Structure formats: structure tokens, C-alpha cells
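[Meeting: bench + compute handoff]

Bench side (C.D.) handed over the final construct sequence. Compute side (W.E.) agreed to return the predicted structure before the next meeting so the bench team could plan truncations. Sequence as handed over:
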Amino acid sequence: MAAGHLDAGIARSKPHHPRLTVAAQMADPFCLALTTQQARVAGNPVELRSFADHDFVDFTRHRGPAYFEQSIYLCAKAGFSPHIRYEASTVHGVLDLVGAGLGVALVPASCALLRAAGTRFCSLRGPTTSEVLVLLRRKADPNPLLPTLADAVRANFGDLQRRMAEMLGC
């Protein structure tokens, strides 16, 4: 994008390039994906530490290193190292394994919007990380449609935030 091949793009982190800027953003903190049955007894928000003895499903490290590292970080911050029993290369794969009862998973809260069968999502208790979805654009892009695009994305991000809040709960 910084090279000028794209006018805008959605990313999961703020830019570290001097030619890029954030045109719109929304919070997308990690939450815990559980089976419907587990969610009934878990409460909301959940204490991640209370899942230290559970099997975890995680994103395959080489296909989703940022997701993998974030889940390891969150577990370490909660005082344990997760027992990763299964890995999947897509968010749908992770949620399918959770729905099948093969483990719990740390995933972005926006995953709740996917309505995966047999899966519920619970917020994490305590301080969360500042995970975001952002609309990036080049600072000096003359495209006159970018302000309109940014307004539309901001409105969509607002709608997604409201829907995520409704979906997050055990």
C-alpha cells in the first residue's frame, strides 16, 4: 500500500510506515470461544486463568503468527502456558474445532459475528489488549473518494461494534 498500488486497506494493526495513516478504526479485543455448554457455566466476563487446565485450539503459528503470539501472550499474562492440542489455519477452522468440543480458543471479538455452530464467546475479565481493526490509507493520496470511504467504514465499524457487544456474552 505504501508503494501506491492500493488506495486503502483494512488491517489488524496500526501502521508503522511514515506514509500510511489510520482513516478509521474500531476496537477488536480478544475473547474466549467456548462450546455452548461451557459458556452456560462460565459466566461473563471470564477469568482466563480458570481455563488453564483446558485444551486450547489455536491458529497455526506459521499461517497466523500474530494470532498465535497474542494468545500465548494473553495466557502468559494470566499466569499459565496453554496446552495447545489442535491448530487450524483459518478462523473458521478454529471455531469448528471449538464447536466440536475439542478445546477453547482465544479469538478476536469480531469472530462472534460469524455465528459458528455450537460456539459462544465470552469477554475476558481484566485489562485487555488494544487490538484493533483499521482502515489504512496513504497520507498524501489525492483520491477524492477516500473521505467518503472513510465515513462509510466508520459507520460500518460502529454497526459492527454494536453487534459484537450483543454477541459477546455467555
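W.E. noted at the follow-up: Strands lie at 8-11, 20-27, 30-35, 55-59, 83-88, 105-108, 119-122, 132-138. C.D. will use this when planning the next construct.
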